[in-house]
Write a structure and sequence with these properties.
Number of domains: 2
Radius of gyration: 34 Å
CATH topology of the largest domain: Gamma Fibrinogen, Chain A, domain 1
InterPro entries: FIB_ANG-like (IPR037579), Fibrinogen-like_C (IPR036056), Fibrinogen_a/b/g_C_1 (IPR014716), Fibrinogen_a/b/g_C_dom (IPR002181), Fibrinogen_a/b/g_coil_dom (IPR012290), Fibrinogen_CS (IPR020837)
CATH superfamily of the largest domain: Gamma Fibrinogen, chain A, domain 1
Bound molecules: calcium ion
Strand content: 15-25%
Protein name: Fibrinogen gamma chain
CATH architecture of the largest domain: Alpha-Beta Complex
GO molecular function, one term: protein-macromolecule adaptor activity
Pfam families: Fib_alpha (PF08702), Fibrinogen_C (PF00147)
Subcellular location: Secreted
Number of strands: 14
Length: 430
């Protein structure tokens, strides 16, 4: 019985360590898929709800453990009484019987009793250990209960962490807009080949266009120096009011762009430190699968007033500048996965992840420079730590203030607000 009890107790301890790993908060590093919370880290309310859900089961287990212990204790007590009784009768037998014949018999009986006594003592020790385990579990239970109560109080009125997720779903934000959604916010989408649905921020405008936002930078609050896995899964925070910075994740961007039969436009929107806004559109935008290192491809620059930085830029340093700073066809690189066309590691130098060539003319995951201006000195001798660059608008020593990267089907891009694009490319009306 003892081993099974210990196994139960071990299981409980495991359960506790699992739950405490989850409550460590919203650090991305501890956030893994299929951990019961989905792909995103739990909010404090989520943790509280989760704990409240599993606690009754733990309490039942503890109670069962307690009952088992009590029955063992009763059994041990009965055994002890039996031992005392046997000892007494053995001794009295010894006293009253003939020395020769009965002495040996009672002596071996006494030996048996002593062995039996040893077993009882060992069993008592085991019970003692288990009881200690139970009280330590009880203490942890009460700590967890307290934590849960604190979290509940924090979440009760009003729960600041609660996030409104819109009820409509679809293959992407345009699909959701087509189904009648009129407000921007958080929605679940499930592209055709996605194994499971995931959350995105949909920007839905008054023309009924639904943009699926894949990247957002607004204030430098999020560090974009992340590794391959983080860029793969996405990082940062989605917010229902578009107030936070994030990278949706290469795998999701791949699913949104490469598994759809509809040509997709990547719209890039940029804001500089004087509040000027410009944009650039690329059509047939696709991000390949991980096996092809999330390669970026697009059909052509569809227009916009920010210029075509993805086509590369002649910086004047070398005749091959434009060729080696173009982005179409480049694989994705991070500091721990160098897929660029450079002898060094562009992503490591810039502390970011991007479709690096040797290295870039448009780079929206660069280092955030408050105020926008940075110098060669900030960037280091070899141009390290480059900012958020779109070199066909502002030069390489100017880091932009805000960026948005979002997707929309080609058929919808010109619907309202797209006049400028149509004007620049009169032959491309849809
Ligand atoms: Ca390299």
């Amino acid at each position: 019985m003892a081993p099974s009890l210990l196994a139960t107790a071990g299981g409980l301890l495991l359960l506790f360590s699992f739950s405490s790993a989850q409550t460590r908060g919203d650090s991305i590093a501890t956030c893994t898929r299929n951990d019961g919370f989905g792909e995103y880290c739990p909010t404090t309310c989520g943790v509280s709800d989760y704990m409240l859900r599993y606690m009754p089961a733990v309490e039942r287990d503890l109670e069962r453990l307690q009952q088992q212990l009590e029955s063992i204790a009763n059994f041990t007590k009965e055994t002890e009484e039996t031992v005392v009784y046997m000892k007494d009768s053995a001794l009295s037998a010894q006293k009253t019987s003939q020395p020769d014949m009965y002495y040996k018999k009672s002596q071996s009986m006494l030996d048996d009793i002593r062995r039996f006594e040893q077993t009882v003592i060992a069993q008592e020790q085991q019970i003692n250990d288990l009881q200690n385990l139970i009280s330590s579990n009880e203490r942890r239970m009460s700590d967890l209960k307290q934590l849960s109560v604190n979290l509940q109080q924090k979440c009760s009125e009003p729960c600041k962490d609660s996030v409104e997720i819109q009820p409509l779903t679809g293959t992407d934000c345009q699909d959701i807009a087509n189904k009648g959604a009129t407000i921007s916010g958080l929605y679940y989408v499930k592209p055709a080949k996605a194994p499971e649905q995931f959350l995105v921020y949909c920007e839905i405008d008054s023309f009924g266009r639904g943009f699926t936002v894949i990247q957002r930078r607004r204030d430098g609050s999020l560090d974009f120096k992340k590794d391959w896995i983080q860029y793969k899964n996405g990082f940062g925070y989605l917010s229902p009011d578009d107030t936070t910075e994030f990278w949706l994740g290469n795998e999701k961007i791949h699913l949104l762009t490469a598994t759809t039969t509809m040509p997709t436009v990547l719209r890039i929107e940029l804001v500089d430190w004087d509040g000027n806004k410009k944009h650039a559109d690329y059509t047939m935008f696709r991000v390949g699968p991980e096996i092809d290192m999330y390669r970026l491809t697009y059909g052509y620059y569809f227009g916009g007033d920010a210029g075509d930085a993805f086509d590369g830029f002649d910086f004047g340093d070398d005749p091959s500048d434009k060729f080696y700073t173009s982005h179409n066809g480049m694989q994705f690189s991070t500091f721990d996965k160098d897929n660029d066309k450079y002898g060094g590691n562009c992503a490591e130098q810039d502390g970011s992840g991007w479709w690096m060539n040797r290295c870039h003319a448009g780079h929206l995951n660069g280092k955030y420079y408050q105020g926008g201006r940075y110098t060669e000195k900030d960037a280091g001798e070899f141009g390290f730590d480059n900012g958020i660059i779109w070199v066909t608008w502002h030069n390489r020593w100017y880091s932009l203030k805000e960026t948005t990267m979002k997707l929309i089907p080609l058929s919808r891009i010109t619907a309202g607000g797209g006049q400028q694009t149509v004007k620049q490319f009169p032959g491309l009306e849809f």
